[in-house]
Design goal:
Blueprint: E1 16-21, H1 42-54, E2 58-64, E3 122-126, H2 149-155, E4 160-166, H3 168-181, E5 185-194, H4 202-213, E6 216-218
Parallel strand pairs: 1-2, 1-4, 2-3, 4-5, 5-6
The structure holds pyrazine-2-carboxylic acid and zinc ion.
Zinc ion binds at residues 64, 66, 72, 101-102, 127.
Length: 225
């Protein structure tokens, strides 16, 4: 395990944003790219959502939203299977290929019905370019185009980000790292995320890298008030 120091008690304010990453059917057990225990974090996310709302913070949901011909899908590469290593030169796709997931307009791309969508101030869709993946809620993997998240947060004068959702070692990780790079103070809500751990050890590496970078860690208890 990675040793994490948790911040203690916390007051949320109007310059904070809760970023709820990819809480869609395909990432939840029963979906096509299921994250183990992904369903178990829904209740806690709704609970802290109320705390953020009460304190006038903003709440953003991200949504993985791929066309059917997306090149992150193994099915779009001859002879490849989900989980196979694959990296395009510019970092646009990889380091592995995925099963088809979150295809626009399918049930798998929908937010889970138990998620309180009334909390959403903004929904950011990502991963629409068939040739480029977008793990981060901020921008494409090749860093050539942004999703509009940064513009939105800046227009609301957001200073601190609180990241939760799926999957810990992909979309949550990249969103948190970009948030830090873009100058926000970033808190990772560890017990409100779950990871895929592909390749094995990836969750540990993600946590270590975030810790080294200066991202802080919080658990639900420090936010409930
Ligand atoms: C994700 C893999 C592929 C995620 C999205 O939401 O973490 N992972 N697309
Ligand atoms: Zn995806």
């Amino acid at each position: 395990m990675v040793e994490l120091d948790f911040e203690k008690s916390f007051e949320i304010n109007k310059n904070d944003a809760l970023i709820i990453v990819d809480m869609q059917y395909d990432f939840i057990p029963g979906g096509s790219l299921p994250v183990e225990e992904g369903d178990l974090i829904i209740k806690g996310i709704n609970e802290i959502g109320i705390v953020f709302k009460k304190n006038k913070a903003k709440i953003v949901f991200t949504q993985d939203w791929h066309p059917k011909n997306h090149l992150s899908f193994a099915s779009n590469h001859k002879g490849k299977s989900p989980g196979d290593e694959f990296s395009s030169e510019d970092g646009a796709i990889g380091p592995v290929l995925w099963p088809d997931h979150c295809v626009q307009g399918t049930k798998g791309a929908n937010f889970h019905k138990n998620l309180n969508l009334k909390l959403a101030d903004k929904i950011i869709k990502k991963g629409m370019n068939p040739k480029v993946d977008s793990y981060s809620g901020f921008q494409d993997n090749d860093k050539k185009s942004e999703t509009g998240l940064r513009e939105y947060l800046n227009s609301k004068k957001i200073k601190r980000l609180f990241v939760c959702g799926l999957a810990l070692d992909y979309c949550c990780y990249y969103t948190a790292m970009d948030g830090f790079e873009f100058g926000y103070e970033v808190f990772f809500l560890v017990d409100l995320t779950r990871g895929v751990d592909v390749p094995e050890g990836n969750i540990k590496t993600a946590l270590e890298t975030m810790k080294k970078t200066g991202i802080k860690f919080l658990n639900i208890e420090s936010l409930k008030q």
